[in-house]
Design a protein that fits this description.
The chain has 422 residues and is an alpha+beta fold. It is 30% helix and 21% strand. Strand 3 and strand 4 form a beta hairpin. Helix 2 packs across helix 3 and helix 5 packs antiparallel against helix 7.
Length: 422
Amino acid sequence: MAYRSESEDWKNKKKPKLLGSELFWGITGILLGLLIIRLKERVEGSEASPHGQTEESVISADEVSPEESSQAEAYDASLHQGLYCYELLTEAEKCWYREMYGILDTMQEEGELSLQPELTVEEAELDKVFQCLMNDHPELFFVKGYTYTHYTYAGETAKLGFTGMYTMDAAEREEKQKQIEAQALKYQQGISMQASDYEKVKYVYETIVLETEYLRDAVDSQNIYSVFVNHESVCQGYAKAAQYLLMQLGVRATLVKGTVSGGENHAWNLVWIDGVSYYMDATWGDASYRMEEGEEEAEDSRPVINYDYLCVTTGQLTKTHVIDNVVPLPECLSIDANYYVMEGAYFTDYDEAALAAFFEKSYEEGKTDVTLKCADEEVFTYFCRRLIDEQGIFDYLDTEGGPVAYSGDLEQFSMTFWLVND
């Protein structure tokens, strides 16, 4: 039995261990047949605590011919058209993808994948398709993994069994799905379907951050239930919930996996705004996630939302993130829909008139904190000198005699200012 994870730690595995084999002979001494059954499991694991896996192969015999194996049902391809991972698969892989979805969505106890001459029945092939499926479909919140059984006859594959591994039964799934849909609908009603793609992406980013507390040991943390119902989750829950809402609002999005500083496994999103791709990380948008361990802040002292990871380029993202995705991802180069650009908070030089207008606009919008982004390190260094070292911030920020707190991000060239209580 092999335990496999949907998250990144699935790569750490041991080779199958052969336990034994037997040849069964008829009374006349003629070999009737050898059926080899290889059963494997793949289980969704914890993003923060990778675990080791073992594999066990069981070989037994039976009198079965390949003709007795039936083809798995082909499922409607229209359900998946336009989904990012699905569109990058070969036709044979797409067939497995559709069949896996059909088995998982109906919670079948035992299904079957059709035999594809172009594909070898190996873990890497199955894992790739399964991971693509899970990255495309956040609504499969009740799926934690799968098992597959490989039957061979006379050295050839006779049948490929596929069974979902679920965290609940059908009745509980139905009840939880109703809860998810009800909460998701409330969120969707907070923005018009006629809003622009950027407005929808920004709304979802802010909603997920404001409505969710980052908690490493949250219940159901790897799926959307943890966000929509429990309001406590980790990065995969944040990313899948954001993806689910965006898809409901008509914005194309997919799940991305990799690691961040220190090698910790992480998940975030790739989104499309007016046909152009950008990265979005709602988890890192939650300022509390990045607070240093043991640091205590007054509830009103630190801005709740960090916008450094709302619609960023590949270059900006990879300063802190390492992409390790199941399929290739596009090079995100545009900053047109970057949060700071769209909000007039992106500065290519130190322009006093533009700064004054920016702060005035922030006051008019009732903001209690102000964040701006510099185009490069040179501009950022100059802003730090003028606004912080020379205390020029007091020319723009109405402090009413109170102290001002600030934070700066040397990797993203952003700085945030906010008033604090004495």
